[in-house]
């Protein structure tokens, strides 16, 4: 059985970008064009995160979500700057199947709990970004990786599960964009601490890396960034996704 493999696309000024370790973002192109390509590749699911939304104190654009909904053949999740039930309602009503919440998990008490009661856990993804803290231990960061919460990954994961998240998008900031492989130890710590699906994110560079995240890390799914927008060692821009034959060969024995 092939696990869920989800392209994760970052938005900045309505353009598609990708960076390394949450910085140095490079313009990739038009996100709607990427959606059309992923349609042809029959991708099961997409995630869009507006990386400027929280800093600009606004949610991801409803107009953008509407445009994606008009083009997209598959379910998609959107995130960035979401801080209220009204915003969640508007985004789901505009066409998103799920919303992804990060900073507000720690800054808006009760939001996740109230949202799960109103919209259902299946609509809510909790994004947990992990980086090294001041004393070297792994900590949860918010505001696009710029502000530590001093919370450890397992405690944060159990917190969002208890509050009603349907799944966790777990990103290693240190591995993000490196294509050097996932932090399987981190993923396993979190996955083993909760009973909801954990989507591994940060470091995918090959199908073997994804397989490691699933087998060694106990992840339920994998999110791909650089692997879906860059090709080769020179990081040439190319929207891509593993072919069905490759996926079947790699994961057919699961």
Describe this structure in words.
It is a single chain. This protein has 254 residues and is of the alpha/beta class. It has a single domain, classed as Alpha-Beta Barrel (TIM Barrel). Helices cover 33% and strands 27% of the residues. The chain is built from ten helices and 14 strands. It has helices at 31-40, 62-71, 85-94, 104-107, 111-119, 153-163, 184-191, 207-215, 226-229, 244-251, and strands at 4-12, 15-20, 23-29, 46-50, 76-79, 98-101, 124-132, 138-142, 147-148, 167-172, 198-201, 221-224, 230-231, 236-237. The strands form two sheets. An eight-stranded parallel barrel has the order 1-4-5-6-7-10-11-12, surrounded by five helices. A two-stranded antiparallel sheet has the order 13-14. Strand 10, helix 7 and strand 11 (198-201) form a beta-alpha-beta unit. The radius of gyration is 17 Å and the shape is globular. The termini are close together. The mean pLDDT is 96.
Quick recap:
The mean pLDDT is 96.
Keywords:
254 residues; alpha/beta; TIM Barrel; two-stranded antiparallel sheet; 10 helices; 14 strands; globular
Write the SSE topology.
Layout lengths: L3 E9 L2 E6 L2 E7 L1 H10 L5 E5 L11 H10 L4 E4 L5 H10 L3 E4 L2 H4 L3 H9 L4 E9 L5 E5 L4 E2 L4 H11 L3 E6 L11 H8 L6 E4 L5 H9 L5 E4 L1 H4 E2 L4 E2 L6 H8 L3
Whole-number mean pLDDT:
96
Low-confidence stretches: none
Distance between the termini: 5 Å
Which structural class is indicated by helix and strand composition?
alpha/beta
- Estimated share of beta-strand residues: 25-35%
């Amino acid at each position: 059985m092939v696990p869920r493999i989800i392209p994760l696309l970052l938005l900045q000024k309505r353009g598609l970008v990708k960076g390394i370790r949450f910085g140095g973002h490079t313009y990739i192109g038009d996100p709607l064009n990427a959606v059309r390509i992923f349609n042809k590749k029959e991708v099961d699911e997409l995630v869009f995160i507006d990386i400027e939304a929280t800093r600009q104190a606004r949610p991801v654009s409803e107009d953008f979500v509407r445009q994606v909904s008009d083009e997209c053949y598959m379910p998609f999740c959107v995130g960035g700057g979401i801080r209220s039930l009204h915003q969640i309602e508007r985004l789901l009503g505009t066409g998103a199947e799920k919303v992804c919440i990060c900073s507000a998990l720690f800054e808006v008490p009760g939001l996740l709990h109230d949202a799960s009661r109103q919209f259902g856990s299946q609509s809510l993804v909790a994004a947990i970004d992990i980086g090294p803290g001041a004393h070297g231990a792994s900590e949860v960061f918010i505001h696009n990786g710029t502000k530590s919460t001093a919370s450890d990954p397992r405690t944060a994961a159990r917190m969002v599960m208890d509050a009603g998240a349907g799944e966790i998008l777990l990103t290693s900031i240190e591995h993000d964009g490196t294509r050097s492989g996932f932090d399987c130890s981190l993923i396993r710590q979190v996955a083993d601490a909760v009973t909801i699906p954990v989507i591994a994110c940060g470091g995918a560079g090959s199908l073997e890396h994804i397989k490691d995240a699933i087998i060694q890390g106990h992840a339920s799914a994998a999110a791909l960034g650089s692997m879906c927008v860059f090709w080769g060692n020179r990081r040439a821009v190319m929207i891509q996704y593993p072919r069905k034959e490759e996926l079947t060969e790699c994961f057919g024995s699961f």
